[in-house]
Design a protein that fits this description.
It is built from twelve helices and eleven strands. By secondary structure, it is of the alpha/beta class. Helix 1 packs across helix 3 (about 40-55).
Protein backbone atom coordinates (compact mmCIF):
# COMPACT_ATOMS: atom_id res chain seq x y z
CA UNK A 1 0.00 0.00 0.00
CA UNK A 2 1.36 3.44 -0.93
CA UNK A 3 1.71 6.28 1.56
CA UNK A 4 -1.22 8.07 -0.08
CA UNK A 5 -3.39 4.95 -0.24
CA UNK A 6 -3.60 4.54 3.54
CA UNK A 7 -4.62 8.20 3.85
CA UNK A 8 -2.30 8.97 6.77
CA UNK A 9 1.32 7.81 6.48
CA UNK A 10 2.23 10.50 3.93
CA UNK A 11 0.98 13.21 6.31
CA UNK A 12 3.58 12.30 8.92
CA UNK A 13 6.21 14.00 6.73
CA UNK A 14 3.99 17.00 6.03
CA UNK A 15 4.94 20.17 7.89
CA UNK A 16 2.88 23.22 8.78
CA UNK A 17 5.47 25.20 6.82
CA UNK A 18 4.53 23.27 3.66
CA UNK A 19 0.90 24.30 4.01
CA UNK A 20 1.71 27.91 4.84
CA UNK A 21 4.04 28.15 1.84
CA UNK A 22 1.37 26.81 -0.52
CA UNK A 23 -1.16 29.42 0.56
CA UNK A 24 1.37 32.23 0.26
CA UNK A 25 2.46 30.96 -3.17
CA UNK A 26 -1.11 30.94 -4.46
CA UNK A 27 -1.71 34.46 -3.17
CA UNK A 28 1.62 35.79 -4.47
CA UNK A 29 1.32 34.17 -7.91
CA UNK A 30 5.07 33.70 -8.42
CA UNK A 31 7.88 31.89 -6.64
CA UNK A 32 9.85 35.12 -6.43
CA UNK A 33 7.08 37.10 -4.70
CA UNK A 34 6.22 34.17 -2.41
CA UNK A 35 9.86 33.91 -1.35
CA UNK A 36 9.92 37.62 -0.51
CA UNK A 37 6.76 37.34 1.60
CA UNK A 38 8.15 34.32 3.47
CA UNK A 39 11.59 35.93 3.93
CA UNK A 40 13.46 33.15 2.14
CA UNK A 41 15.39 32.75 -1.08
CA UNK A 42 13.68 31.67 -4.30
CA UNK A 43 15.68 28.46 -4.33
CA UNK A 44 14.47 27.66 -0.81
CA UNK A 45 10.91 28.33 -1.90
CA UNK A 46 11.36 26.02 -4.88
CA UNK A 47 12.74 23.37 -2.52
CA UNK A 48 9.66 23.56 -0.27
CA UNK A 49 7.36 23.24 -3.28
CA UNK A 50 9.27 20.29 -4.74
CA UNK A 51 9.29 18.57 -1.36
CA UNK A 52 5.53 18.93 -0.97
CA UNK A 53 4.85 17.75 -4.52
CA UNK A 54 6.99 14.70 -3.76
CA UNK A 55 4.88 13.96 -0.68
CA UNK A 56 1.63 14.38 -2.61
CA UNK A 57 2.90 12.56 -5.68
CA UNK A 58 1.48 15.10 -8.14
CA UNK A 59 2.20 18.66 -9.37
CA UNK A 60 0.56 21.32 -7.21
CA UNK A 61 0.99 24.36 -9.48
CA UNK A 62 1.18 25.09 -13.20
CA UNK A 63 2.08 28.29 -14.97
CA UNK A 64 -1.01 30.06 -16.30
CA UNK A 65 0.12 33.20 -18.07
CA UNK A 66 2.14 35.39 -15.73
CA UNK A 67 0.91 33.69 -12.57
CA UNK A 68 1.12 30.24 -11.12
CA UNK A 69 -2.22 28.44 -10.75
CA UNK A 70 -3.12 25.49 -8.54
CA UNK A 71 -3.72 22.09 -10.10
CA UNK A 72 -6.62 19.89 -8.86
CA UNK A 73 -4.15 18.34 -6.38
CA UNK A 74 -3.09 21.84 -5.39
CA UNK A 75 -6.71 22.81 -4.73
CA UNK A 76 -7.11 19.77 -2.46
CA UNK A 77 -3.98 20.75 -0.55
CA UNK A 78 -5.19 24.35 -0.33
CA UNK A 79 -8.39 23.20 1.40
CA UNK A 80 -6.31 21.10 3.78
CA UNK A 81 -4.01 24.06 4.47
CA UNK A 82 -6.90 26.40 5.26
CA UNK A 83 -8.45 23.84 7.61
CA UNK A 84 -5.24 22.88 9.41
CA UNK A 85 -3.81 26.39 9.73
CA UNK A 86 -7.17 27.66 10.97
CA UNK A 87 -7.25 24.93 13.63
CA UNK A 88 -3.65 25.68 14.62
CA UNK A 89 -4.42 29.39 14.95
CA UNK A 90 -7.54 28.78 17.05
CA UNK A 91 -5.69 26.27 19.23
CA UNK A 92 -2.92 28.81 19.78
CA UNK A 93 -5.43 31.46 20.84
CA UNK A 94 -7.15 29.00 23.15
CA UNK A 95 -3.87 27.92 24.75
CA UNK A 96 -2.82 31.52 25.24
CA UNK A 97 -6.18 32.35 26.81
CA UNK A 98 -6.04 29.23 28.98
CA UNK A 99 -2.64 30.27 30.30
CA UNK A 100 -4.31 33.53 31.40
CA UNK A 101 -7.25 31.71 32.98
CA UNK A 102 -9.65 32.59 30.14
CA UNK A 103 -11.32 30.87 27.19
CA UNK A 104 -11.87 31.84 23.55
CA UNK A 105 -15.33 30.27 23.27
CA UNK A 106 -18.51 30.73 25.26
CA UNK A 107 -21.54 28.48 24.69
CA UNK A 108 -24.74 30.08 26.01
CA UNK A 109 -28.13 28.39 26.25
CA UNK A 110 -31.28 30.51 26.45
CA UNK A 111 -35.09 30.42 26.57
CA UNK A 112 -37.50 32.93 25.00
CA UNK A 113 -37.29 35.39 27.89
CA UNK A 114 -33.53 35.65 27.62
CA UNK A 115 -33.53 35.87 23.83
CA UNK A 116 -35.83 38.90 23.87
CA UNK A 117 -33.53 41.47 25.45
CA UNK A 118 -30.91 40.24 27.90
CA UNK A 119 -29.17 37.77 25.59
CA UNK A 120 -28.60 39.98 22.51
CA UNK A 121 -27.59 42.95 24.66
CA UNK A 122 -25.31 40.80 26.82
CA UNK A 123 -23.59 39.16 23.83
CA UNK A 124 -23.11 42.48 22.03
CA UNK A 125 -21.69 44.22 25.07
CA UNK A 126 -19.63 41.19 26.10
CA UNK A 127 -17.92 41.03 22.71
CA UNK A 128 -17.11 44.73 22.79
CA UNK A 129 -15.12 44.03 25.94
CA UNK A 130 -13.87 40.58 24.91
CA UNK A 131 -13.54 40.55 21.09
CA UNK A 132 -11.34 37.45 21.23
CA UNK A 133 -14.19 35.27 22.51
CA UNK A 134 -16.51 33.51 20.04
CA UNK A 135 -20.07 33.05 21.36
CA UNK A 136 -22.36 30.16 20.40
CA UNK A 137 -26.06 30.47 21.30
CA UNK A 138 -28.48 27.56 21.67
CA UNK A 139 -32.23 28.14 22.18
CA UNK A 140 -34.06 25.19 23.79
CA UNK A 141 -36.51 24.47 26.64
CA UNK A 142 -34.89 25.15 29.99
CA UNK A 143 -35.00 21.49 31.07
CA UNK A 144 -32.92 20.47 28.06
CA UNK A 145 -30.53 23.37 28.62
CA UNK A 146 -29.95 22.44 32.25
CA UNK A 147 -29.29 18.82 31.31
CA UNK A 148 -26.70 19.98 28.76
CA UNK A 149 -25.20 22.36 31.31
CA UNK A 150 -24.82 19.50 33.80
CA UNK A 151 -23.10 17.45 31.06
CA UNK A 152 -20.80 20.45 30.48
CA UNK A 153 -21.97 20.91 26.92
CA UNK A 154 -22.93 24.51 27.76
CA UNK A 155 -21.03 27.13 29.74
CA UNK A 156 -23.95 29.21 30.99
CA UNK A 157 -27.74 29.21 30.69
CA UNK A 158 -30.26 32.07 30.68
CA UNK A 159 -33.50 30.43 31.74
CA UNK A 160 -36.25 29.87 34.23
CA UNK A 161 -35.20 29.44 37.83
CA UNK A 162 -37.19 26.54 39.29
CA UNK A 163 -36.69 23.26 41.18
CA UNK A 164 -34.57 21.86 38.33
CA UNK A 165 -32.02 24.59 38.97
CA UNK A 166 -31.32 23.32 42.48
CA UNK A 167 -28.75 20.83 41.24
CA UNK A 168 -25.83 20.23 43.59
CA UNK A 169 -23.33 21.09 40.87
CA UNK A 170 -25.07 24.24 39.60
CA UNK A 171 -24.99 27.85 40.73
CA UNK A 172 -27.64 30.41 39.76
CA UNK A 173 -28.64 34.04 40.13
CA UNK A 174 -32.09 35.51 39.49
CA UNK A 175 -32.10 38.37 36.96
CA UNK A 176 -35.78 39.35 36.70
CA UNK A 177 -39.37 38.15 37.16
CA UNK A 178 -41.43 37.50 34.03
CA UNK A 179 -45.11 37.00 33.18
CA UNK A 180 -46.99 35.27 30.35
CA UNK A 181 -48.90 37.29 27.75
CA UNK A 182 -51.50 36.46 25.11
CA UNK A 183 -50.41 37.71 21.68
CA UNK A 184 -51.67 37.85 18.09
CA UNK A 185 -50.22 38.75 14.71
CA UNK A 186 -51.58 40.90 11.89
CA UNK A 187 -53.63 37.96 10.62
CA UNK A 188 -55.90 38.09 13.67
CA UNK A 189 -59.05 40.26 14.05
CA UNK A 190 -57.75 40.98 17.56
CA UNK A 191 -54.78 42.93 16.14
CA UNK A 192 -54.98 46.40 17.68
CA UNK A 193 -57.89 45.42 19.94
CA UNK A 194 -57.73 47.20 23.33
CA UNK A 195 -60.69 45.56 25.06
CA UNK A 196 -60.21 43.48 28.20
CA UNK A 197 -61.02 39.83 27.43
CA UNK A 198 -61.85 37.13 29.99
CA UNK A 199 -59.38 34.32 29.36
CA UNK A 200 -62.25 31.82 29.22
CA UNK A 201 -63.82 33.69 26.30
CA UNK A 202 -60.80 32.96 24.11
CA UNK A 203 -60.69 29.18 24.45
CA UNK A 204 -62.13 28.53 20.99
CA UNK A 205 -59.40 30.51 19.20
CA UNK A 206 -56.62 28.74 17.27
CA UNK A 207 -53.98 28.57 19.98
CA UNK A 208 -50.21 28.20 19.68
CA UNK A 209 -48.69 27.16 23.00
CA UNK A 210 -45.38 25.79 24.31
CA UNK A 211 -44.98 22.00 24.54
CA UNK A 212 -45.93 20.06 27.65
CA UNK A 213 -43.10 19.78 30.14
CA UNK A 214 -41.95 23.38 29.68
CA UNK A 215 -42.25 25.89 32.52
CA UNK A 216 -44.43 28.23 30.48
CA UNK A 217 -46.83 25.43 29.52
CA UNK A 218 -47.20 24.40 33.16
CA UNK A 219 -48.04 27.95 34.22
CA UNK A 220 -50.38 28.37 31.26
CA UNK A 221 -52.30 25.18 32.02
CA UNK A 222 -52.68 26.27 35.65
CA UNK A 223 -54.11 29.61 34.49
CA UNK A 224 -56.63 27.80 32.26
CA UNK A 225 -57.82 25.67 35.17
CA UNK A 226 -58.17 28.78 37.30
CA UNK A 227 -60.19 30.42 34.49
CA UNK A 228 -62.47 27.38 34.25
CA UNK A 229 -61.20 26.52 30.77
CA UNK A 230 -59.03 23.41 31.11
CA UNK A 231 -60.46 21.95 27.87
CA UNK A 232 -58.58 24.34 25.56
CA UNK A 233 -57.15 22.33 22.65
CA UNK A 234 -54.07 23.92 21.05
CA UNK A 235 -53.65 23.89 17.29
CA UNK A 236 -49.86 24.06 17.44
CA UNK A 237 -47.31 23.31 20.15
CA UNK A 238 -43.84 24.79 19.69
CA UNK A 239 -40.91 25.99 21.77
CA UNK A 240 -39.48 28.06 18.91
CA UNK A 241 -40.17 31.79 18.92
CA UNK A 242 -39.51 31.98 15.17
CA UNK A 243 -42.24 29.40 14.51
CA UNK A 244 -44.65 31.25 16.78
CA UNK A 245 -44.07 34.59 15.03
CA UNK A 246 -44.30 33.10 11.55
CA UNK A 247 -47.61 31.36 12.30
CA UNK A 248 -49.08 34.44 13.98
CA UNK A 249 -48.51 36.41 10.79
CA UNK A 250 -49.65 33.71 8.37
CA UNK A 251 -53.06 32.94 9.83
CA UNK A 252 -55.69 33.71 12.44
CA UNK A 253 -53.74 32.32 15.38
CA UNK A 254 -53.39 33.41 18.99
CA UNK A 255 -50.42 32.48 21.13
CA UNK A 256 -48.69 32.82 24.46
CA UNK A 257 -45.36 34.51 24.97
CA UNK A 258 -43.25 35.81 27.82
CA UNK A 259 -43.79 39.45 28.84
CA UNK A 260 -40.14 40.17 28.10
CA UNK A 261 -40.41 38.80 24.55
CA UNK A 262 -43.82 40.44 24.03
CA UNK A 263 -42.45 43.84 25.02
CA UNK A 264 -39.59 43.48 22.55
CA UNK A 265 -41.72 42.19 19.66
CA UNK A 266 -44.46 44.79 20.28
CA UNK A 267 -41.90 47.58 20.06
CA UNK A 268 -41.09 46.32 16.55
CA UNK A 269 -44.80 45.91 15.64
CA UNK A 270 -44.35 42.14 15.34
CA UNK A 271 -47.08 41.15 17.82
CA UNK A 272 -50.03 42.75 19.58
CA UNK A 273 -50.63 42.01 23.25
CA UNK A 274 -54.24 41.00 23.96
CA UNK A 275 -55.49 42.33 27.30
CA UNK A 276 -56.87 39.55 29.52
CA UNK A 277 -58.56 39.57 32.89
CA UNK A 278 -55.67 38.12 34.87
CA UNK A 279 -51.91 38.16 35.40
CA UNK A 280 -50.23 34.84 34.58
CA UNK A 281 -46.90 34.48 36.29
CA UNK A 282 -44.07 32.89 34.34
CA UNK A 283 -41.55 33.04 37.16
CA UNK A 284 -37.99 34.03 37.83
CA UNK A 285 -35.54 34.15 34.95
CA UNK A 286 -31.86 33.98 35.76
CA UNK A 287 -28.41 32.84 34.81
CA UNK A 288 -27.08 29.37 35.69
CA UNK A 289 -23.58 27.89 35.48
CA UNK A 290 -21.50 24.98 36.77
CA UNK A 291 -19.94 25.69 40.16
CA UNK A 292 -16.64 23.99 39.35
CA UNK A 293 -16.27 25.51 35.85
CA UNK A 294 -16.66 29.18 36.73
CA UNK A 295 -14.03 30.92 34.59
CA UNK A 296 -13.21 34.60 34.15
CA UNK A 297 -15.04 34.47 30.82
CA UNK A 298 -18.26 33.15 32.38
CA UNK A 299 -17.94 35.61 35.25
CA UNK A 300 -17.64 38.50 32.78
CA UNK A 301 -20.76 37.37 30.89
CA UNK A 302 -22.76 36.90 34.10
CA UNK A 303 -21.79 40.35 35.31
CA UNK A 304 -22.94 41.96 32.07
CA UNK A 305 -26.25 40.03 32.12
CA UNK A 306 -26.72 41.15 35.72
CA UNK A 307 -26.17 44.82 34.87
CA UNK A 308 -28.44 44.71 31.80
CA UNK A 309 -31.25 43.14 33.84
CA UNK A 310 -31.34 45.94 36.39
CA UNK A 311 -34.38 48.23 36.01
CA UNK A 312 -33.71 50.56 33.11
CA UNK A 313 -30.39 48.87 32.40
CA UNK A 314 -28.73 51.50 34.58
CA UNK A 315 -25.78 49.28 35.37
CA UNK A 316 -24.70 48.83 31.75
CA UNK A 317 -22.25 51.73 31.79
CA UNK A 318 -20.65 50.35 34.92
CA UNK A 319 -20.23 46.95 33.26
CA UNK A 320 -18.19 48.59 30.53
CA UNK A 321 -15.57 49.85 32.95
Amino acid sequence: MSDLADGFTWARRLKVRHLESLLVLEQAGTLTEAAVRLHMTQSAMSHWLAEMESLVGAPLVVRGGRRLELTPAGQLMKRLAISVLGDVSRAGQALNASARGKTTRLHVGSVWSGVARVLPMAVTHFQRLHPEVSVTVTEQPVGTLLERLARRELDVVLGTIDARTYHSGLQYETLFEDDICVVVGRGSPLWGDTCLHPLGSLVHEQWIVPPKGTTMRGQWDSALIDAGAPWLQPKVETAAITTLLTLLHSGNYIGVCSEEMTRYQSAHAMVHKVAIDRVIRFGAVGVVWNKDLYSETIEAFVQIAREISRPGGTGLAAAAR
